[in-house]
Each structure stands twice: as C-alpha cells, then as structure tokens.
Amino acid sequence: MSAKATPFADNWAYLKTELGWLERLLLTAVAKRRQENREVNRIAQSPADRVTSHWWKGIITLNQPAFHDDCRVPAKIPGSAKQSYQQLLEARIQASQSQGIALGLPALCDRFGLSTAEKNLVLLALAPEVNQRYGKLYRYLQADSSSLSLPTVDLSLRLLCRNDLEWRRLRAKLAAPTSFVYRHLLAYQESAPLIESHLQLSPELVNYLLAETPQPQDLPDIVLPRSSAIAPPDTTSAEALTPWPRLELELNSNPDLDLEPRLVLPEALIQSLQGLAQQTALSLRLSGQITAPQGQIVLLSGPAGTGKTYAAKAIARSLNQPLITIDLAHLTAAEQTALLLDKILQTAPLILLRTAQHWLGRQTKDQTKNQALICHWLAQRRQVPGLTLFTTHFMQSVRPSCRRQLDGVLEFPLPDERQRSQLWQQILPESTQIEAEIDWSQVARLVLTGGEIQAIAQTALAYAQAADTPTLRLQHLQQAAALRGKTLRLKR
Q1: Which helix (H) or strand (E) holds 125?
Q2: Does position 183 have pLDDT exceeding 50, yes or no?
Q3: Are residues 307 and 405 in the same domain?
Q4: 354: which strand partners?
Q5: Same domain for 161 and 129
Q6: Which of 183, 280, 406, 409 is 20 to 30 Å from 390 at the Cα level?
Q7: Which of 421, 426, 453 is nearest to 439 (CA)?
Q8: H or E element at residue 365
Q9: Is 387 in the same domain as 265?
Q10: Is residue 375 in some structural domain?
C-alpha cells in the first residue's frame, strides 16, 4: 500500500493536509451548530428554553422525517470497501519516511506512542498557531465557554469522539499525570472542571512541529525534561528553593555486608527513580498543606532479580523513611481483608507490595470479594502524602484497566553484558584474592540477573573461604553457578 502512495513534498505539505482535514471537521460542526440554533430559536420563547433545549429537543419533533424502529443496516457490497482517510494518510507518511522526508508530528507520535486521537489533540492545539480562523471557529463552537482562541477539552472531546467509550478513554488520557497530552498539552485550571481547561503547546514544540525540516533528534531536548515517566511537579513556593534529595543508589544498609551491590540500571530508569523520590519528598514536606501533592501509586515490572526491591529500599533510605514490605502472595483472603482495613498501613509513608497481580490482576472468586475494599484502599492511599509501590514479574499480569489508573509503570530490564560486568566488579570486595586466569569478560557473557550474580558470588566466596588458600578460583564460580542451574564454560 505504501509503495503506491504519493509521499509528501515536505513537512509543510503534510501539515496542510492534516489542517485541511481539521478544517472540514470544524466546518461540519459549525453547520450542525447553526442548524441546531435555528431549530432552537424557532421554538424557544425564553432564555430558560434555550438552556434546556438539549432536553426538550428529544421530545418535540422539529419537522424531521419519521423514523421506524426497524432500522436495518444495509448490506455491504463485496469489493466496495474503500480506504479510510487515516489509512491513506498513513500510507503517504510511510512513503515519505521511506524517502527520508522528515515529518514533525508523525515523528512525535512515533517517539511517544501517541494514538490517532492524541495526535489529533496536538493538531487542534497547533492549528491556531498557523491561522487565526481556527481560533475564530473554536470561539464560535465554544459559545460563551471561552474567550480564547484555544480549544477546550470539552470541544476537543465533542469533535474527536464518536461515542461514550471513546469519550471516556480520551478524557482518561487527558487526566492521567503520566500521559504526554497531560504534560504537554493541557493548560489545567485549578478551580474549574477538567473539560473547561484549554489545550496549548509550548513555543518550543510549536516551532518544532512547524519547522521546514524537523529534526527528530531534537525531541528529547524539547520534550523529555517535562515528560519523563514520573517527574517532580512544578512549584513556585518557597519549597522550590530547597534542594531535591539525591537518590542514593548504594543499597548497603549494613556497613559490614560488602556483598550488597549498587543498582546498575539504564540511565533513563535511574532518572525516573530520581524523579519519583523527588516528588515523594515534596509530598512529605508539604504534608497537611493545601498545595500538598497526592500520594503516588507506581508499578515496578521486571523479572526476578532485576532490582525492583533494591530500588524501593534506595528510595526509602534517600528519604529517611521506613519501608513496609508485604508479599501479597503469602496472604490468605482473610489476611488481605485485614490488611485493607489496617488504619496504620493506610497512612504509612512508603509501602512496597510484591506480586501485584494478587490485587491488580484477574480476580479469583475469593479475591473478587475484596475488590471494592482494594479500590477504596487505593483511593485512601492517594490522599496520603507518600508512595505506594507494586511489583510484578510480568506487566501483562496486571489488568490494563488497573494499569491506566496508576501514576506510572517502570520496567526493569535484564542487565546487558556491560552492566553484568559492572555488577561483578561491584559485588566482590576489594580485599578478595582472585585467580588471575579468570576472564571476567567471558563471565559477563553469561546471562544473569543482578540477584543471580549476587547469589553466585556469595556462594563462590564461601567455597573459596572453605579452601586451604582463600583465593576465588574459576572452579568456585562454576560450582556456585551449577547450584543456580547455570553453566559456566570458560577457558582458564
């Protein structure tokens, strides 16, 4: 399909096509609005009649043809299907990208995984920056609800959503603090409903989208400072002058225990953990004040041994707060009920709940009884300054509906070869005598998690200390790996 499509000449040609579609959408809405106004003005006799027109129009027939209950959908003629506008547009975008033609908005959508509806929200906010007539159309369609040349959330939802389900889903995106559209599109008004808020892009993002040749490599500098998975909130209070606490990644809470490694994670994940610690610090600092942020609920997902629990401990120590850790897999249904009703647990500043699927996954018959309590408990946790962390080995084990209600999902990947080499270097005490023939670059090729590396190192050191000459040898590593079901085939 993309081979037959005509590529766009440049970014501006693409934008003209998108804005042409938007203008047709707006003019259709204007025509419908004028028709409705004529009908209402013909019947209404007072301002009260006009305000209640959405109700009485469903009762009074305004010279419309009669409809019958037996409304069958005409059968489709085979071979008559046509490509939709979005399909044709996507084909032209792919054809352009295959020829190296840079398109700003598609690159933004690819970078942040924006849906078609989210892309159209960006387009709605961008249009007034191109021509004033879009602002005039917005003001007309919004009547008395706005004097600005910017679309409101209410107008955007009415234009882009065809049914209640689409309306709820798109509104949820706009209300989610971790979503792109919330962080970079929504001009939120504290004292007004969400639907009265406006959509507005930053000048930097507008300049990128309107550039003759957008540079996708510039997107991180334009967007990432505000769009990380969990970022510290903006504040203009005196608290902003207090330095953010630095997240301590050294997890050795016992100074005598030399085998506890430091977290070795991708830089983006470390930055997200930093931001999470900073936001929690602000929440605890402003506890009891009107401006205090709500408590955060975040899911940590990744295989066993990738550092989820270590990260939670690091955050707790950086904040100098106790961490309550509970494994939901070890609790009966009755114990879970008692846990949900525990007042002390509801107000704890930091909680780590392991095996999240027992609360957030598909429910068994016994667990369904607690579902209302779980929802209430989570709502209570949001009202408490602090942090609630869930962990799971597989993100798919948590229901999508539950994931959408979380403030963030952080994925912990398996360490790569470079990170495994770093873990081996950190985990062994400097005083350890090591056989010179061991090739650590070969050792690092064995795919292991951080937890497995720690366990193998501890066992290997125990074997070495039990020997006559306490030197860590290759055979000690091989024996320790075998106990974990791993095989080290290395040259001496």
Answers
A1: helix 116-126
A2: yes
A3: yes
A4: 327
A5: yes
A6: 183
A7: 421
A8: helix 365-368
A9: yes
A10: yes
Question: pLDDT per residue over 406-449, tens digit each?
Answer: 888 999 988 888 888 888 888 887 777 888 778 888 888 888 88
In terms of domains, do 220 and 313 share one? no
In the listed set 356, 381, 411, which residue is the last one of a domain according to the structure? Answer: 411
Q: Are residues 438 and 380 in the same domain?
A: no
What pLDDT is recorded for position 16?
A: 92
CATH number at residue 287: 3.40.50.300
C-beta separation of 451 from 304 below 8 A: yes
What CA–CA distances, in Å, run from 216 to 10, 108, 109, 143, 221? 14, 8, 11, 38, 10
Mean pLDDT score, 386-391: 93
From residue 58, how far is each of 40, 52, 61, 63, 64 by CA, in Å? 12, 11, 8, 13, 12
Locate the DSSP E strands across 227-347.
Answer: 296-301, 324-327
Residues 307-360 have pLDDT tens digits of 899 899 888 888 888 888 999 888 888 888 888 888 777 788 899 999 988 888
Residue 491 lies in a domain: no
Residue 469 CA to residue 128 CA, distance in Å, equals 77
Domain count, the chain: 3
**Are 37 and 174 members of one domain?**
yes
Q: How far apart are CA 453 and CA 242, in angstroms?
A: 39
Q: Which of 492, 459, 451, 455 is nearest to 476 (CA)?
A: 459
> Residue 73 falls within a domain, yes or no?
no
d(CA 76, CA 468) in angstroms, rounded, equals 85
Determine the 3-state secondary structure of 198 from DSSP: strand
Same domain, 160 and 273: no
The CA distance from 125 to 145, in Å, is 17
**Residue 259 pLDDT level (bands cut at 50, 70, 90):** very low
Mean predicted confidence (pLDDT) in 247-270: 51
Q: Which DSSP symbol is given to 298?
A: E
Q: Tell me the per-residue pLDDT of 280-297, one tens digit each, with 9 for 90 and over.
A: 888 888 766 655 567 899
Residue 244 placed within a domain: no
Q: Fill in the amino acid letter for 40.
A: V
| Residue 270 and residue 402 in one domain | yes
Give the residue ranges of DSSP H helices in 213-292.
Answer: 219-227, 267-285
